[in-house]
Amino acid sequence: MADALETFKVDSTHVKCDGGDGALGHPRVYLQIKPEVGEIECPYCSRHYVLDKDAAAHASGH
């Protein structure tokens, strides 16, 4: 992934992003991280969300 604005470590495969800048942000989008991939990037602002390894193991049932 190229030059993400910010990277966030998350413990859920479901993430919401609104750009974080209040009125200067973007419409809220709901993103789903596939546990086998472990990360996703917001299509609006390029924030990079990385699934915590412990959460990924729990999500896949291991």
Q: Would you give an account of this structure?
A:
The structure is a single chain. The longest helix has 7 residues, at 53-59. The protein is mainly beta. The protein has one helix spanning 53-59, and strands spanning 7-10, 14-17, 29-32, 39-41, 48-51. The protein has a single domain (7-59), classed as HSP40/DNAj peptide-binding domain. The strands form two sheets. It has a three-stranded mixed beta sheet. The protein has a two-stranded antiparallel sheet with strand order 2-3. A hairpin with a 6-residue loop joins strand 4 (39-41) and strand 5 (48-51). It starts with 6 loop residues before the first strand and ends with a helix. It has one helix and five strands; from the N terminus they run βββββα. The model has no long low-confidence stretch (mean pLDDT 86).
